[in-house]
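Reopening this ticket.

The earlier resolution said the output was attached, but the attachment link was broken on my side. Pasting everything inline this time so it's all in one place.
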Amino acid sequence: MSDTLGLFAEARQLAIDLGYVVREEPLGELPGGACQVGQERRILLNLEQPVAAQLAVLVQTLAADPRAATQPMSRLLAARLGAM
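Inline output:
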């Protein structure tokens, strides 16, 4: 679980560093995901989901963003992004 929490914190910070606004809200049964409002890129995370599911949303969004590969990150996070 500590790996998941650490990866979640690192992935969340990476998203913020890339200019995403990360919002954590109760979204019912929706998993969350990336969206754009005007010029603002957002990642919505469902607070009702487990941290592992929220991490999956972050990893999926970051893996789709080519700018993420140019940023410093742990080997563990890089492996997760590369697996997508």
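Reporter confirms the inline version is readable. The two ends are 21 Å apart (CA to CA). The first strand starts at residue 21 and ends at 25.
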